[in-house]
Amino acid sequence: MTQEELDALMSGATDDIDALDDEVLEEETDTLADDLAAAGVASEEKSAKDVPEGYSDETAGQWPLPATDENKMVHQLDDVTKESEEKATEIFDIIETISGDLMDKEENLNAITDILNSNKELFTTLNEKFPDVEAFKTQLEKNEDALAQVDDITEVLQNSGDSIMSVMDIMQYQDIHRQKIERVINVMRALSKYMNTLFEGKIDDEKRVASAQHIVGDTHNDVASTDDIEALLEQFGQ
């Protein structure tokens, strides 16, 4: 409560108190509106400052990406070769497991084939000696059908094994691709070191004279500031 409100209360002038309250509320409202407006202007100025001159959604694809770990070319290529080799190794392990399972099943079928052939010979002999016994003839036919199915399954397993070998041969190209990428990386690194060697100087950058803001003869005053040059040097240093 202000001194004026206290004086008004002491004098019993309640109407004056209400008027003072309205006046204070109006002043606070105006102040709040001014603060919000100023904050909006500052936000717009900050956003406009963060966006490079000439940048828009249409020209976004023309601007170079920042030099971060996600955008460094050699860094990304190293990740590609590493992840590709790891995934290829996992695929080879899975293929070898499948190939081993197929070979085991093929051996099991060979054992079953031997048993069915033995049964076939037995029922063939029994059917010849006892042609009137229908059971011998029926069992002979069942064993012959089972042998035919085993042959079909064996052929499928063999074809699957051949297909897996073809897949493993194709996967060998992954290693060739990795070697090509590594060769590109080595060339890029060699060029980077060569360019850095060309731009080396005898004087440290910290000891150099600051760049002139304006040189006589310039046709315009739109020159880079010291902060811009230092930011550019720092970016190249990364």
Explain what the structure shows:
With 238 residues, this protein is an all-alpha fold. It folds into 2 domains: 3-61, no CATH class; 66-201. The protein is built from 5 helices and no strands. It has helices spanning 3-11, 14-50, 73-129, 134-198, 226-237. The protein starts with a helix and ends with a helix. The model has no long low-confidence stretch (mean pLDDT 77).
Would you kindly provide a brief summary of this structure?
The protein has helices spanning 3-11, 14-50, 73-129, 134-198, 226-237. The chain is mainly α. The protein has 2 domains: 3-61, no CATH class; 66-201.
Provide keyphrases for this structure.
mainly alpha; 238 residues; 0% strand; 2 domains; 76% helix; elongated
Contiguous low-pLDDT stretches (5 residues minimum) are none
Percent in strands = under 5%
The SSE string, one letter per element, is: HHHHH
Structural class: mainly alpha
Percent helix, as a range, is over 70%
Largest sheet: none
SSE inventory with pairings:
Layout: H1 3-11, H2 14-50, H3 73-129, H4 134-198, H5 226-237
